[in-house]
Each structure stands twice: as C-alpha cells, then as structure tokens.
C-alpha cells in the first residue's frame, strides 16, 4: 500500500496501472516534458478520487497550477474510463463464477437543475435524496465484476437492471445470481428472499413467515453479504459519496473508479 500525505492508502497495483496508462499516453502523443512525472500524476488523480480533494488543494500539494491539476485529472479519467469493462466482458467473468450478486445503490448528487421539474427524475423516494442509480455485480467473495452506467435515481432497481440488459444476459447465459426483493420476477436464475405473506383477512395483519422460510432468508442474506461490502467499498471513494459535477459527467467518473477497483482486487 502506498501512503498519500493526507492519510490516503491505495493499492500499488491500481496506482501502477494508472501510471502505465499515462506513460503510454504520453509516448503516443510525443509529450517531451510535464510538470509532474507519470507516477506523481497518477497519485494526484487517485487523491482526487479517493479523498475528494479539490483542484486547488491538489495544486497546492503537488506544486502545480489549478488549471494543470484539472487537465491532469481529466486526462487520466478519460484513460481509466476507456479501460472499464463492458457488460459483455463482465458476463464472461460471471460465467466462470459459482454465482454472482446483483445489487443496486444510490450515488448522491448535489448539482442538478430544478427548473421545470428536471430534478424529479433524480429524486429517490426510498433514500429521500437526489442521486444516480447504479447496478453492481460482485462475485461470491466480494470482488467487483461490473458497475453499470448511471441512471436517474428515481429509477427502480429492477427497471434499471432490465434497461442495462443484465437480466436478459443472466437468463441467456444461465448465470445464477443472488439479489434482494427489488428484483422479484427477474427470471429463473435470480434468487430473491421470501417475501412477507399476504394479509390475513380475519386479523388484517401480515401472516408471518414460517421457520423454514426464515432460515432460507438468513442463508440468502449470507450469500448477498459480499455484495454489500462491494457497495461499501465503492463509497469509500469519497468522490462518489456526493458527486459535485454534473450528472451528465458522472458516467466517466464511475467508470474510472471501477477500473481502479478491479485493478486493486
């Protein structure tokens, strides 16, 4: 693990991957001189993503101008986003696993237009906040397989998974998956917990689950646990705890973090 002066730790494999991408990009463009070598530029970019340090803070810490820090970060995000896997590549990885875990999460945003109700599509009633819906696929031991491009936060997890083609891909390739009750009816390969029974017409109360059904739900929750850890690790990248940029630019940011997470695994 390589330390950053502010206390950040980062996998050396992810940092080396980014540094190598930057060196290759510089060689391709024929860049002769830069204020920072590729390794320092990589550290600057990771500090921005991991710590959510501002351009001004990074510029001061690395001894460059604010506009230079901005250009370095934009350049690196383009390179990292281009390396992010596609759904087809992720499905090839998932086919080699005993099963995968499918879960959705909300990445909060704070810069969305309010005029003409534009913000309503981004408002999640479940979380009582504006955000972006992303679908996350993880393997049984909690390693990231794929993160979907973002959709407006009001989108239901099931609808988002269908729109991205995840459900059809799981069904076509017969990939077993564990998911929560939001994915009820997702197909024969997607296992979800037992739901509460309907109301008893005599008492007006929900009928309790049987002991066997509760045991099944407990076992299912244990299978899904590693997927929850992946979502937690995703939000350890502080840049994604509350995205300050326009929602239209978030896809590149998420793809860049995804590349670094997979490299760190």
From TrEMBL:
Residues 102-260 form the DDE Tnp4 domain. This is Transposase family protein. InterPro entries: HARBI1_dom (IPR027806), Transposase_HTH_dom (IPR027805). Residues 34-85 form the Transposase Helix-turn-helix domain. Keywords: Metal-binding. Residues 217-229 have a biased composition (Basic and acidic residues). Residues 193-229 are annotated as: Disordered. The lineage of its organism: Bacteria, Bacillati, Actinomycetota, Actinomycetes, Kitasatosporales. Its cofactor is a divalent metal cation. Signal peptide: none annotated. It comes from the Bacteria. The keyword Disulfide bond does not apply.
């Amino acid at each position: 693990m390589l330390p950053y002066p502010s206390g950040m730790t980062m996998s050396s494999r992810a940092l080396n991957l980014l540094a190598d991408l930057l060196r290759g990009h510089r060689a391709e463009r024929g860049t002769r001189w830069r204020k920072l070598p590729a390794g320092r530029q990589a550290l600057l970019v990771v500090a921005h993503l991991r710590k959510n340090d501002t351009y001004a803070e990074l510029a001061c810490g690395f001894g460059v101008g604010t506009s230079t820090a901005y250009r370095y970060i934009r350049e690196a995000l383009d390179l990292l986003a281009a390396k992010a896997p596609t759904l087809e590549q992720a499905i090839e990885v998932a086919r080699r696993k005993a099963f995968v875990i499918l879960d959705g999460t909300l990445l909060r945003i704070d810069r969305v237009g309010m005029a003409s109700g534009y913000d309503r599509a981004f408002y999640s009633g479940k979380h009582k906040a504006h955000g972006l819906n992303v679908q996350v696929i993880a393997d049984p031991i909690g390693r990231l397989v794929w993160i979907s491009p973002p959709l407006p936060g009001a989108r239901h997890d099931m609808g988002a998974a269908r729109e991205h083609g995840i459900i059809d891909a799981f069904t076509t390739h017969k990939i077993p998956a564990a998911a929560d009750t939001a994915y009820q009816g997702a197909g024969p390969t997607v296992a979800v917990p037992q739901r509460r029974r309907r109301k008893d017409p005599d008492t007006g109360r929900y009928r309790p689950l049987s002991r066997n059904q509760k045991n099944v739900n407990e076992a299912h929750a244990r299978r899904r646990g590693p997927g929850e850890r992946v979502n937690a690790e995703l939000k350890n990248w502080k840049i994604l705890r509350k995205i300050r940029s326009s929602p239209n630019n978030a896809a590149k940011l998420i793809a860049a973090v995804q590349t670094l997470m997979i490299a760190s695994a």
